[in-house]
């Protein structure tokens, strides 16, 4: 089997602490360990350098390229020679704050960034209430990144609940969709496995989900269970709830066989419906879950 058919991914399921520097150092060590284990693509969790608490994002925020977390990630990608999806951090851009994933090439150069398109504004059973839009701005792009092994898409957590975004990534050539995410103890047991298996089957792609480790003493308790799902919806690898480096191999030849045997993408009735990017600006205040200003579906 050729090198390009097998892609080894390392998911760093970190226990996120209040100490930003400690989180950065831990992430760099895990990136290095993942590279030593053969990973060519390494993924960190959502908001890996700070507690997931909207009121704290501003204090931990950084700007490109001078932020200490971002400099550390660029150096780690270069030193380890890996494609690095740097989870996500709070990004300061002028007066605006975003939940942003920075993606680095094996030479340490910035390949792309994905700003979370769909913000988590919810009131859930169990008293979990979050309003990201009170602190964060909306991203407005579909992110697909070229790599030596093919193309991969990047989304952040709540983005995965909107099938249009994943489908647009696939239509732009993504064979793998990477999602740094921090599901909680209400949404995780209910939807974590379901959503990633569903997106894998619908789009016939590999799904890579990177969660923080579960810390029951945190104000927001992450579900854990980072995982890799194949295009048939089978779980290739899954972490537990604690801090863990998860290594998995993705066989892109399996992706091609699944798409050939069950040609969903070729059977789309584009004479009846289409899905397209709009590329328009995103309203900073009004929350529109489907974000027709980023993408639209038309008959």
Descriptive labels:
Nitrilase/N-carbamoyl-D-aminoacid amidohydrolase; single chain; six-stranded mixed sheet; seven-stranded mixed sheet; 299 residues; alpha+beta
Portion in beta strands = 25-35%
Radius of gyration: 18 Å
CATH architecture: 4-Layer Sandwich
Q: Which fold name fills CATH's third level, the topology?
A: Nitrilase/N-carbamoyl-D-aminoacid amidohydrolase
CATH class: Alpha Beta
Number of strands: 17
Q: Main β-sheet: number of strands, strand sense, barrel status?
A: 7 strands, mixed
Please give a quick description of this structure.
This protein is an alpha+beta fold and 299 residues long. The chain has helices spanning 20-36, 57-60, 68-80, 163-171, 187-203, 252-261; strands spanning 6-13, 41-43, 83-85, 89-93, 96-104, 110-115, 121-124, 128-131, 143-147, 150-154, 174-180, 206-210, 227-229, 235-238, 244-251, 274-277, 295-298. It has one domain (3-263): 4-Layer Sandwich (Nitrilase/N-carbamoyl-D-aminoacid amidohydrolase).
Could you characterize the architecture of this molecule?
With about 300 residues, the chain is an alpha+beta fold. The chain has one domain (about 5-265): Carbon-nitrogen hydrolase (Nitrilase/N-carbamoyl-D-aminoacid amidohydrolase, 4-Layer Sandwich). The chain has six helices and 17 strands. β13 (about 225-230) and β14 form a beta hairpin. The radius of gyration is 18 Å and the shape is globular. Mean pLDDT is about 90; it is low at about 280-290.
């Amino acid at each position: 089997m050729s090198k390009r058919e097998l892609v080894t991914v390392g998911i760093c399921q970190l226990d996120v602490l209040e100490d930003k520097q400690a989180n950065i150092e831990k992430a760099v060590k895990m990136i290095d360990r993942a590279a030593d284990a053969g990973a060519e693509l390494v993924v960190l969790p959502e908001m890996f350098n700070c507690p997931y608490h909207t009121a704290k994002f501003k204090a931990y925020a950084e700007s490109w390229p001078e932020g200490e977390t971002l400099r550390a990630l660029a150096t780690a990608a270069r030193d380890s020679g890996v494609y690095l999806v740097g989870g996500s951090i709070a990004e300061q851009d002028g007066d605006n704050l975003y939940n942003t994933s920075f993606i680095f090439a094996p030479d340490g150069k910035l390949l792309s960034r994905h700003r979370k398109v769909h913000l988590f504004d919810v009131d859930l059973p169990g008293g979990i209430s979050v309003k990201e839009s009170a602190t964060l701005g909306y991203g407005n792009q579909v992110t697909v990144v070229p790599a030596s092994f093919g193309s991969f898409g990047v989304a952040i957590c709540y983005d995965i609940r909107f099938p249009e975004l994943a489908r647009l990534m696939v239509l732009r050539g993504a064979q793998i969709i990477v999602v740094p995410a921090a599901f909680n103890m209400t949404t995780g047991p209910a939807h974590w496995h379901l959503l990633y298996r569903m997106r894998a089957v619908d789009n016939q792609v590999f799904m890579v989900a990177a969660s923080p480790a579960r810390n029951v003493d945190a104000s927001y308790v992450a579900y854990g269970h980072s995982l890799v799902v194949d295009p048939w919806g089978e779980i290739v690898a899954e972490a537990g709830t604690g801090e863990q480096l998860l290594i998995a191999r993705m066989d892109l030849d399996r992706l091609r066989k699944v798409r050939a045997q069950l040609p969903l993408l070729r059977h789309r009735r584009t004479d009846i419906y289409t899905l397209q990017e709009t590329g328009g600006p995103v309203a900073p205040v009004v929350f529109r879950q489907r974000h027709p200003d980023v993408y639209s579906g038309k008959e």
